# Entry
Amino acid sequence: MPTTHDSVWMTPHTRTALEAELAGLLTLPHAADAEARTDQVVDAWLARKHRIREIHELLSRAGHTRIPPDDGVAEPGMVLTVRFDDTGDTETFLLGTRGTTDDELEVYTVYSPLGSALLGATPGRQCSYRLPTGRSQRVTLLTAVPFGTHRPESSTFAHPGS
# Structure
């Protein structure tokens, strides 16, 4: 069974889009492609094969596409707002996997220093992580809300049970 670090959270819309893209990539190339120069055909075939592999990997690791519960716990699929304690600056981002949402939010993975430090945190919890310079950065989790409910005007996803 995959652990939280092994699984990928993605929006239902993104899963559908990736499945459609994969289906398109798996169809045979058009006859016009065969008329192109051989090196172009090979390059296109290699790029296609690479993208198919990427999509397969994402979809096979997608444990679920449900919206996480609105329990305030930092986990994949939650939009987190943090305060950097040394400056007071705030940042809002999705804890997830890049390429698994079509939203304009910045995405931090659970493998990133910041994402790893916040995983499992609840609002008010102070966490720290190492910067590439070796310095320690302290942040406080201010909010953790399910993706799709992070914007009042958002109606892209219905809350579970609605």
